[in-house]
């Protein structure tokens, strides 16, 4: 049997893609880990998503479903403190989400290693990928991890517990690959919204909803989510001057057109 791959699974698009790719395409056994945050608004939706994914995988690929091992659950409130890792995080927190502090403490506390953190490709100067990009190396197993030559640096100390397998593909690439290998329907069962509505619809205004839309998967928000996304976006005047917005492009073209008329 192939070596068991360990993946931190949230029930979201990126980690679900990785889990399904390993099982359906690479036919590898996968051990998933989920950290329960009892105060997380979307907790129940993530549980439902993972349950639906497992059930559908078993129905569609009964010969492969056993490769997805029972998920190991941890309670976030059991994660203790680690002064050294907190100091490492403090030096990077302008570019990193707060979850990376307690994730590293969790991995250290429970003696875990080579846990895959699934991070899509991003062109942003902030976020996990931008922080680790210049610290990665690939070993003989094909794992991308933090190179040991950086031992003692904050980035190494925070992230050497983890592996990074798909930092070079976008969400839309995942959709295409899933369709090519016939598991797109299962991938679509994943969940992403942090503040779902009373009717279990994406809110359209939380960061994961915004990221989903911006990264080319706006259809996943549904009519309500997309409506709320646009209302939220265009209620902020600064977004009218965002160089990547359609509004900015329109205003710029009008300015150029007016300038040409005046010149003529």
Polypeptide structure, described:
With 264 residues, the chain is an alpha/beta fold. The protein folds into two domains: 159 residues; 72 residues, no CATH class. Helix content is 44%, strand content 9%. The chain contains eleven helices and seven strands. Strand 1, helix 1 and strand 2 form a beta-alpha-beta unit. The N and C termini lie far apart (75 Å). The model has no long low-confidence stretch (mean pLDDT 89).
Keywords:
7 strands; two-stranded antiparallel ribbon; 44% helix; 2 domains; alpha/beta; globular; single chain; five-stranded parallel sheet; 264 residues
Give the biggest beta sheet.
5 strands, parallel
**Uncertain spans:** none
Count, helices: 11
General form: globular
Strand order of the largest sheet: 3-2-1-4-7
Structural class designation: alpha/beta
Number of strands: 7
Succession of helices and strands: EHEHEHHEHEEHEHHHHH
Count of discrete structural domains:
2
Q: Mean pLDDT, nearest integer?
A: 89
Kindly state the percentage of residues in helix.
Answer: 40-55%
Radius of gyration: 21 Å
Topology:
Elements lengths: L4 E4 L4 H13 L4 E7 L6 H18 L11 E4 L7 H8 L8 H11 L5 E2 L11 H5 L3 E3 L5 E3 L7 H6 L2 E2 L7 H10 L3 H4 L19 H11 L4 H13 L11 H18 L1
Parallel strand pairs: 1-2, 1-4, 2-3, 4-7
Antiparallel strand pairs: 5-6
Helix pairs in contact: 1-7, 3-4
